[in-house]
């Protein structure tokens, strides 16, 4: 039997055939960057691998990375793999308690610390006995420094291979519904999936000669790990740029001028709201309708966003409002939505140039089988299927059908051509006091499409009817104390409520819209590190107010 070509085999090939190709560009502040060729990337990774081996780690030892995206994250992962270890990446925004939980649960025997914004709160939860190495861009610390180790350590020689069934990584879910679970992936499955993703991107991007991508979604999350890191390690002639910070994001985008760009719904909405803050939707629609002027406006908007070179764009991680996809395509951006999970290494469904429809998440991707259970649950069998949950065989037994399909927990409808539409999440569906079940996600999508709303949740467990809690768009929030702005918000949201309710069944209609008194963020714990809403936490924060809302007259309230 032919030995499968694994991800490390591709990397060694790039080291030999593309030594001077600039693989990564890392901003280091004040507009300055450092380029890393494949030669330099492997030189540093090999030196760190030799250092890790000198620490007498056991085969398959769990080595953790706590860092925002940076070039050294990828170098460290290569070093871990070459040293015979398994990577455990921790979301850089996690609270200290979760950092400690992941380190303890994974039995991490080593930790790399990199770019972080909240290290002072996380540091006390890192065991003092745990050996640590600091990346060059790490906050102030007393750990051994990456650059010092690399400078004095002879690089590991030869092409060190890993067995197909060796564990490559344990990916801890972002914890939107409780304690994170450790999802195990081996080399064989991530390598095959990375090749499939590259084929998909090329098939839907035409003859893409210059492949540039910006890495900014958390590398601890499967979307970025599969679609950026794993694919670039496999493809070789991909130039990966990193973002420096939230404040410099547009400059980072303009530096990269990505030709392929992926994001999550929250950021696609923010981009749109940023455009609307400069040009009202009605005026924009009018300008776009003028033949020559419309073309110039499209180019100006995309260039301002740093997306004018994008040949293909993707969205995943959460549902994207259909209206938003239509809006981006009107600008000339080919935005395709997909659907996948940590458990299948982000390889399940994607729209294609030929088969796509706003509001749907695509057809089964190469090698994927999918079906809908009698209960309406989406079941998937993917080449990227996880090995299992780390230390949780009980969850493994619950997660799969008898014939090996993963139970996604999502409800959906599948057309004859395979096109899938997500209709809700089983665990999110709630029952009103009238005994009717309401799926919040489709209603939230309708609300989130409005330029005045940044994000929302629909709730109403055991209440007479559902309600929505909404966060106003970022450009509106600072002006909300101005009487005219407040009146305009109330007027528009009243109209929005009527419009949305007109499209819903009687049992789904919203009793009211309630405007949240603070934005939801990763920092205040209302969003996961991948910007999904923590539904239970948000509901708990307003639990003592809900009953009084139902006693009021009117339809738009302030929390």
Structure description:
There is one protein chain. The chain has 559 residues and is α/β, with parallel strands linked by helices. 35% of the residues lie in helices and 22% in strands. The protein has 3 domains: 7-28 and 35-203, Rossmann fold, CATH 3.40.50.980; 261-425, ANL, N-terminal domain (Rossmann fold); 430-558, ANL, C-terminal domain (GMP Synthetase, Chain A, domain 3), CATH 3.30.300. The strands form 6 sheets. The chain has an 8-stranded mixed β-sheet with strand order 7-6-5-3-4-8-9-19, sandwiched between helices. The protein has a 5-stranded mixed β-sheet with strand order 12-13-14-15-16. A 4-stranded mixed β-sheet has the order 2-1-11-10, sandwiched between helices. The longest helix has 20 residues, at 483-502. The radius of gyration is 24 Å and the shape is globular. The termini are far apart.
Global geometry: globular
Report the total helices: 18
Q: State the distance separating the first and last CA atoms.
A: 64 Å
Q: Count the domains.
A: 3
* Range of helix content: 25-40%
Unreliable residue stretches: none
Quick one: biggest sheet?
Answer: 8 strands, mixed
What would the average pLDDT be, to the nearest integer? Answer: 90
Number of beta strands: 27
The value of Rg in angstroms is: 24 Å
Portion of residues in beta strands equals: 15-25%
Q: Write the CATH architecture name of the largest domain.
A: 3-Layer(aba) Sandwich
**Quaternary structure:** single chain
């Amino acid at each position: 039997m032919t030995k499968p070509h694994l991800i490390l085999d591709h990397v060694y090939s790039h080291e030999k055939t593309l030594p001077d190709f600039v693989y990564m560009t890392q901003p280091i502040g004040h507009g300055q960057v450092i380029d890393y060729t494949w030669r330099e990337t492997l030189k540093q990774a090999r030196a760190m691998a030799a250092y890790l081996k000198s620490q007498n780690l056991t085969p398959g030892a769990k080595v953790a990375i706590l860092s925002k995206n940076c070039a050294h994250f990828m170098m460290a992962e290569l070093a871990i793999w070459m040293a015979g270890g398994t990577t455990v990446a921790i979301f850089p925004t996690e609270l200290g308690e979760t950092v400690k939980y992941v380190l303890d649960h994974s039995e991490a025997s080593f930790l790399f610390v990199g770019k972080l914004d909240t290290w002072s709160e996380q540091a006390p939860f890192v065991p003092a006995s745990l050996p640590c190495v600091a990346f060059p861009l790490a906050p102030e610390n007393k750990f051994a420094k990456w650059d010092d180790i690399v400078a004095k350590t002879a690089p590991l020689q030869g092409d060190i291979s890993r067995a197909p069934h060796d564990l490559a990584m344990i990916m801890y879910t972002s914890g939107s519904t409780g304690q994170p679970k450790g999802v195990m992936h081996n080399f064989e499955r991530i390598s095959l999936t990375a090749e499939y993703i590259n084929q998909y991107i090329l098939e839907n991007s035409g003859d893409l000669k210059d492949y540039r991508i910006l890495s900014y979604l958390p590398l601890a999350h499967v979307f970025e790990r599969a679609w950026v890191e794993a694919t670039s390690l496999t493809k070789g002639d991909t130039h990966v740029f990193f973002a420096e910070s939230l404040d410099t994001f547009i400059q980072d985008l303009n530096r990269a001028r990505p030709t392929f760009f992926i994001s999550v719904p929250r950021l696609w909405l923010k981009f749109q709201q940023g455009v609307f803050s400069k040009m009202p939707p009605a005026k924009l629609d009018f300008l776009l309708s003028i033949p020559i002027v419309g073309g110039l406006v499209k180019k100006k908007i995309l260039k301002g966003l740093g997306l004018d070179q994008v040949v293909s764009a993707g969205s995943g991680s959460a549902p994207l409002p259909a209206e938003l996809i239509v809006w981006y395509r009107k600008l000339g951006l080919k935005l395709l939505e997909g659907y996948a999970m940590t458990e299948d290494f982000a390889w399940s469904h994607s729209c294609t140039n030929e088969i796509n429809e706003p509001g749907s998440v695509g057809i089964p991707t190469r090698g994927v089988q999918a079906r809908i259970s009698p209960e309406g649950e989406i079941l998937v069998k993917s080449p990227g299927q996880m090995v299992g949950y780390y230390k949780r065989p009980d969850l493994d037994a619950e997660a799969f059908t008898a014939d090996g399909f993963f139970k996604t927990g999502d409800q959906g409808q599948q057309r004859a051509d395979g096109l899938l539409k997500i209709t809700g999440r089983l665990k999110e569906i709630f029952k009103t006091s009238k005994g009717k079940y309401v799926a919040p996600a489709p209603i939230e999508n309708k609300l989130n499409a409005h330029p005045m709303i940044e994000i929302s949740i629909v709730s109403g467990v055991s209440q007479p009817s559902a309600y929505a809690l909404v966060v106003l768009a970022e450009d509106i929030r600072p002006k909300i104390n101005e009487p005219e702005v407040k009146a305009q918000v109330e007027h528009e949201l009243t109209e929005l409520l009527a419009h949305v309710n007109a499209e819903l069944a009687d049992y789904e209609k919203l009793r009211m819209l309630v405007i949240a008194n603070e934005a939801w963020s990763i920092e205040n714990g209302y969003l996961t590190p991948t910007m999904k809403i923590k539904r239970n936490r948000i509901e708990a924060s307003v639990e003592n107010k809900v009953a009084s809302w139902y006693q009021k007259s009117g339809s738009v309230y302030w929390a």
